[in-house]
């Protein structure tokens, strides 16, 4: 589903992705972790071409992102992205946040979009909040709406960039529960997170990056039990 082949990226002189090679098969959940500034956000943002790559190849669902003819709109329509900051439209209710893109971009009629959005709100445990505005919702609730909104576009891949980092501790669990349920539906997911409990329980693989390079790629049990690099050992000491 996602294939990085010798991918490099620079910001000016900063070598932010250094020869990244990764294969992520359909239905797999991959957690990306690493120190702050190591290139995690840049890595995940290349997948929907929020950041173009400078060298190497990146194939996403059969589309070659290094090919200028690739239809970026089609690519983005297949990828849901959930950020640390929930970025809901503040002037729209939870329900309208979810129906907006399906109506405008997918051309769904209002009734259909409404029914789908209600089903998604149900799925993230927020059906009764459909008429609430973002300011009336907790951070955890807003993030669950943001996930529902991404799912409304029926993506084939879901990207999460530190989805719980801006949340109060007591709200982290409710968001991780929604993500765990999503993983069980067979969604292909790439998740940047420091939540090693989630990583251990839900992910198929953990990718540890440092200074833009993949230092380690392992099953979670192996990564926790016997991290191969001093850098990953240090990182685990800090987050576990
Ligand atoms: P992480 O998500 O792991 O904290 P990032 O991918 O956000 O790391 O950033 C990796 C490095 O690239 C950092 O040194 C950061 O300052 C730098 N960086 C990120 N975005 C830009 C940008 N748009 N322009 C220049 N440098 C950037
Ligand atoms: Mg980041």
From TrEMBL:
<dbReference type="GO" id="GO:0015424">
    <property type="term" value="F:ABC-type amino acid transporter activity"/>
</dbReference>
<dbReference type="InterPro" id="IPR050086">
    <property type="entry name" value="MetN_ABC_transporter-like"/>
</dbReference>
<keyword id="KW-0547">Nucleotide-binding</keyword>
<dbReference type="InterPro" id="IPR003439">
    <property type="entry name" value="ABC_transporter-like_ATP-bd"/>
</dbReference>
<dbReference type="GO" id="GO:0005524">
    <property type="term" value="F:ATP binding"/>
</dbReference>
<protein>
    <submittedName>
        <fullName>ABC transporter related</fullName>
    </submittedName>
</protein>
<dbReference type="InterPro" id="IPR003593">
    <property type="entry name" value="AAA+_ATPase"/>
</dbReference>
<dbReference type="InterPro" id="IPR030679">
    <property type="entry name" value="ABC_ATPase_HisP-typ"/>
</dbReference>
<dbReference type="InterPro" id="IPR017871">
    <property type="entry name" value="ABC_transporter-like_CS"/>
</dbReference>
<dbReference type="GO" id="GO:0016887">
    <property type="term" value="F:ATP hydrolysis activity"/>
</dbReference>
<feature type="domain" description="ABC transporter">
    <location>
        <begin position="2"/>
        <end position="236"/>
    </location>
</feature>
<dbReference type="Pfam" id="PF00005">
    <property type="entry name" value="ABC_tran"/>
</dbReference>
<keyword id="KW-0067">ATP-binding</keyword>
<dbReference type="InterPro" id="IPR027417">
    <property type="entry name" value="P-loop_NTPase"/>
</dbReference>
<comment type="similarity">
    <text>Belongs to the ABC transporter superfamily.</text>
</comment>
<keyword id="KW-0813">Transport</keyword>
